Amino acid sequence: MKILSARVYSMSDDEINAYHPSKELINKQEDLMLTAKTRLFILGHRVEKIAVIPMAAKPFHRGHQALLDAAEADGNELILVYVSTSGRDEIDSSDMVPLWKNYYLPAIQSTYGNKVAIRFTKGLSPMFELRSSISNMIRQSDETTVTLYGDPDDAQERVDNIINNEKNTIDLRGRVFAGAVPRELSGGISGTKMREFLASGDRLQFIQNLPDFLSDESKAAVWDSLSRNFAVQKENLLKNYVRLILA
Fold first, then answer.
1. pLDDT (0 to 100) of residue 245
2. What is the spatial distance between Cα 39 and Cα 134, in angstroms, rounded to a whole number?
3. What span, in angstroms and rounded, lies between the C-alpha atoms of 33 and 21?
């Protein structure tokens, strides 16, 4: 897996040779790595327990780390994280991609090893792509089960929607489960609160609620990058508002 990872993340656009109108190189590399991991593990019938975690992660915070920790503690052999690269009003997708590449991905690899694979869903919601892939995971082996992790209400609702989807080609009952992780485990933090910290300039609270697996230097870099981009976006919105008033 180390050899595979080193090879994939050293590949150029020309080597991957997969055209996409909006995906950047890091998106293509992650797609390739996830596909290779899934085939190695699942097609070899080595994986019986798979965790899936959909998230927007704008930004990735302690609450998301709690989901990874729960999936690992439950003994899942493969943890697939589906991350939306669609932007929010406060945080654009282009703000997060370099942070994933430079800080989050190396730290996740170091902390959880090869069992975690990240899938960036450019232009799609994480749930849309997740629904289309769960059936394929289940179909590979009669012993394979999938657990979807999230808030207690969200996780069960999402699992119910997946199981009851009329487009399913196989019966997923008894094969797909909800992994409820209360937000209280990470202090009740949410993406909305993290963006509020950015908006108010609360550096201390923002950094305290970033994942523990990031170094102090990485946490500072994430704050510096997002707070700077956030300030620029607020300035642009104000200028546009003034232009609208004066027009």
1. 57
2. 14
3. 20
Q: How far is CA 126 from CA 119, 129, 213, in A?
A: 9, 6, 23
* pLDDT score for 87: 57
Sign of the torsion formed by the C-alpha atoms of 188, 155, 214 and 129: negative
Q: What is the rounded CA–CA span in Å between residue 108 and residue 170? A: 33
Residue whose token pair is 């909800």: 178
The per-residue pLDDT for 241 is 44
Q: 140: buried, middle or exposed (CB in 10 Å: 19+, 13-18, 0-12)?
A: middle
Decide: helix, strand or coil at residue 177: strand
Distance of alpha carbon 7 from alpha carbon 3, whole angstroms? 6
For residue 1 the two structure tokens come to 């897996």
User: What are the residues facing 81 on neighbouring strands?
Assistant: 53, 118
How high is the pLDDT of residue 212? 95
Burial class (CB in 10 A: 0-12, 13-18, 19+), 63: buried
Which residues make Cβ contacts (< 8 Å) with residue 129, sequence separation at least 6?
82, 119, 121
Q: Which of the residues in the chain have pLDDT under 50? A: 45, 232, 235-242
Report how many helices (DSSP H) and strands (DSSP E) the chain contains, helices first. 11, 5
**pLDDT digit string (tens) for 109-140?**
899 987 898 888 766 677 777 877 788 778 77
